[in-house]
Write a structure and sequence with these properties.
Blueprint: E1 2-6, H1 10-22, E2 27-30, E3 49-52, H2 58-71, E4 78-79, E5 86-87
Antiparallel strand pairs: 1-3, 2-3, 4-5
The structure holds zinc ion (ZN).
Zinc ion (ZN) binds near residues 96 and 97.
């Protein structure tokens, strides 16, 4: 199992899982029952994640997700490549980990 996507919310996670399923990649949504703001959990684990079951599908899965992210409206946030947090498009560094975006 390999994580390929951290979604902002559950519907997005299922959308990505469906996207992968449509090209024959078996994937699972994890953290499905962990809504944001769960007291003691680290923030990253409170988001739903999409994992592919077979690592041989990784490359194609990442391609699908990249094109999914590019298809989103321009006003949408950009995702930090280092920590996966969402940042407004005009940010040059991640608000969360301070890495360049
Ligand atoms: Zn970051």
């Amino acid at each position: 199992m390999q994580r390929v996507f951290t979604a902002a919310h559950l519907p997005e996670a299922h959308l990505v899982r469906g996207l992968l399923a449509s090209v024959g990649i078996p994937a699972r949504v994890l953290n499905e029952y962990a809504p944001g703001g769960l007291g003691d959990l680290p923030a990253a684990s409170a988001y739903p994640e999409v994992w592919v079951e077979d690592e041989r599908d990784l490359l194609l899965a990442r391609k699908m997700i990249t094109s999914y992210e590019q298809d989103r409206p321009a006003a949408e946030a950009q995702r930090c490549p280092a920590c996966g947090e969402e940042n407004p498009r005009h940010f040059a560094v991640c608000w969360h980990c301070q890495k360049p975006l």
